[in-house]
Amino acid sequence: MSDKDKNKQLIPALERGLTILMELNRHHREMSFAEIVKRVGYPQSTSYRAVQTLEHMGFLRHHPVTGLYSLGVNVLKLGFEYVASLDVVQVGHPVIESLCEQTGCSSHIAIRDGRDAVYVARVGATNATIRRVSVGTRIPLHCTSLGRLLLTDLSKEEFESLYPDDQLLNKELGAPIWRDVLWELVQEDRQRGYVIADSYYHFGISSIAYPLYNHDGVMEGVVSIMVPVHEFTEEERTELQAQVEEAARTISGMLGHG
């Protein structure tokens, strides 16, 4: 189907409403109606109907004093219901909160979605000097040690189906270029059972990651922390590794893994 034919299938009113919602992001959390009209580029009457509909359905909130619009509770509800539907997030979030408190390191839970690692939970350390990774961030699996660990649950057939080409896209410094090289790294990670990597995705940052399994022994995701290389001694990193391993064991146990 050509782009022209695809456009014929679109619902203009729905497209306008979603465009307005997407404009209210972390950089523009509140906007006046005039700002909304200016940013989306729709006629004022069209924008007004869209805004009124979104407000009526709870996807926009109109502040009674300032007159500004912000995302309504139903937007948050949709997002949180999706994340909360993942049991690993429900049981894992309190554990990574404790892990962050114990280690002083930002802690995360990520799952695999196709060829991407998706961060579904995070707790940021108070004094973290590392660039934040937000919930919902997607990173190609082969570009991160955490992502490689998510591949260890795949058979060779599943792996080759996921990566049909010999050469990998989305190249990052330090990441493998060839599929066969990635497979060998994944097998090493599988044998080891965890990953500790220095400056693999971000220079100067170490990561420690352990897998999370459910009651059927299927990998549900990974738990990880990020550690500035220069801030910790080798002895301290060994202790951190043990703490991440314990967090992974706790979450897996809560998911029913024996």
TrEMBL record:
According to the entry, every stretch annotated as the IclR-ED domain falls at: 74-257
Q: Which InterPro entries match?
A: GAF-like_dom_sf, HTH_MetabolicPath_Reg, Tscrpt_reg_IclR_C, Tscrpt_reg_IclR_N, WH-like_DNA-bd_sf, WH_DNA-bd_sf
List, in alphabetical order, the Gene Ontology terms for molecular function in this entry. Answer: DNA binding; DNA-binding transcription factor activity
Locate the HTH iclR-type domain: which residues? 11-73
User: What protein name is recorded for this chain?
Assistant: IclR family transcriptional regulator
Q: Which SMART domains match?
A: HTH_ICLR
Record flagged with keyword Amino-acid biosynthesis: no
Keyword DNA-binding tagged: yes
Superkingdom of the source species? Bacteria
Keywords recorded for this protein, A-Z: DNA-binding, Transcription, Transcription regulation
PROSITE patterns in alphabetical order: HTH_ICLR (PS51077), ICLR_ED (PS51078)
GO biological process, alphabetically ordered:
negative regulation of DNA-templated transcription
